[in-house]
Specification:
mainly alpha, 3 helices, about 0% strand
Length: about 100
């Protein structure tokens, strides 16, 4: 059950956030959606592997709540970076028009 909380749920949150950013860029002629997709392909599984390894190594030392919060923080790094790229691309696109 600890792996459900510390690996699967953060993975689903990360996939959902990446999917939202991809949907925001669909059909507007921007290459940002493709960039997000290509960045997410290796990042999402790597994050799940990192969370699984951290959970396995620390499950006796920390509570499930502590591990879950740390896993959510790790899983939020990629969507924040991708959202930052999206904001920068919108700002640059607005300045070039």
């Amino acid at each position: 059950m600890i792996y459900l909380y510390c690996v699967v749920i953060p993975l689903l949150i990360q996939v959902g956030a990446v999917y939202i950013v991809i949907l925001m860029n669909t059909g507007n002629g921007s290459w940002m959606g493709l960039l997000v997709f290509l960045l997410a392909m290796p990042i999402v599984p790597i994050t799940a592997i990192i969370n699984a390894a951290r959970t396995r190594a620390n499950k006796e030392k920390k509570t499930t709540q502590q591990l879950f919060i740390q896993a959510i923080i790790v899983a939020c790094i990629a969507p924040l970076v991708i959202s930052g790229l999206f904001i920068v691309s919108v700002l640059i696109e607005g300045l070039l028009r």
